[in-house]
Design goal:
Length: 306
């Protein structure tokens, strides 16, 4: 089959307590990717602020914003100016007392192509997300009559984007459902790091597991995967924990899990050429979707098989 190349940029950055500074770093990364010919740019999870979920405070709900709102307007203007698609991330205020961790996709004409509300919400020391975020709806019918929500790819000028967020990346079900809905590529905006108190070997195991599970989604579904993670140390304002050392290592892999590009632990902008047509050949060689025993999977909807 003939190639269908998508040039994508992945922006990896630190974040500060100053929104303007964070937006400036994101914009610099987006512009660098655009200068390199990117048609699509992926930003990391919650890139407009510090990772505020290290502790629980009702005051932090003030960070939330509506959609459309300041972030979508800013990202839309950049997308239109640079003529590319941008995947961003924000703390969404959907209604009073109802908030989401939401990825937004801005089309190259500046319009909002779609949103994805994080479905799997963690609750662990230093990652108290259940206090802040409501899981995304399984599915809902919008005012325009179109069913959206859940694991639904977002149609754009560069393809159907299967956008998932951070904790979603550990779940094969999420990746599979995006693939079954026709996603051309899976994208994971992320904020994940080590506890600085963990020993080196434990830190290495955690990062290796994180890379491995996402490469496995590429293999199992015959799809390319793009991952953007933040970098830098962010302290715990309460002093109860040692904060989070975000490990970076953003990467892109092809439909057999092969690395196309890898970043380290410093700020970076990756430029990757993804052949979207290659998924067709890989799925012909490894027809996992053909051989699924959908008649035998009913127990997957149970919490546990007692």
């Amino acid at each position: 089959m003939s190639k269908k190349i998508l040039r994508a940029g992945i922006v990896q950055q630190p974040c500060t307590s100053d929104r303007v500074t964070n937006l400036k770093m994101s914009e610099e990364g987006i512009r660098a990717a655009a200068a390199g010919g990117a048609q699509l740019v992926l930003l990391q999870e919650l890139h407009t602020s510090l990772y505020f979920c290290q502790y629980e405070s009702t005051e932090l709900f003030e960070l939330a914003e509506s959609i459309p709102g300041p972030s979508t307007e800013w990202l839309g203007a950049l997308a239109k100016e640079l003529k590319l698609v941008i995947v961003g991330s924000l703390f969404e205020r959907r209604a009073p007392g109802l908030y989401h961790n939401t990825a937004v996709v801005l089309e190259s004409d500046g319009s909002l192509a779609g949103t994805y509300r994080k479905m799997h919400i963690p609750d662990d020391p230093g990652y108290y997300e259940k206090f802040y975020f409501t899981p995304g709806d399984i599915a809902c019918r919008n005012a325009d009559g179109v069913m959206r929500g859940g694991f639904t790819p977002i149609q754009t000028s560069v393809g159907k984007l299967g956008v998932l967020v951070c904790w979603d990346q550990w779940y094969p079900e999420a990746a599979r459902l995006m693939a079954l809905a026709g996603a051309d590529v899976l994208l994971y905006p992320t904020a994940i790091g080590w506890n600085p108190d963990d020993k080196d070997d434990e830190q290495a195991r955690q990062r290796d597991a994180w890379v491995t599970i996402q490469r496995s989604h590429a293999v199992a579904n015959g799809l390319p995967v793009l991952v953007a993670n933040r970098v830098g140390h962010e302290s715990d304002p309460t002093g109860n924990l040692s904060g989070a050392q975000f490990w970076g290592h953003s990467f892109a892999v092809g439909p057999q899990g092969e690395f196309i590009a890898k970043a380290g632990e410093k700020p970076d902008v990756l430029l990757v050429d993804v052949d979207l047509a290659r998924s067709e050949n890989v799925r012909r060689w490894w027809p996992f979707l053909r051989d699924r025993r959908i008649d035998a999977y009913n127990d997957l909807t149970r919490r546990f098989r007692d």
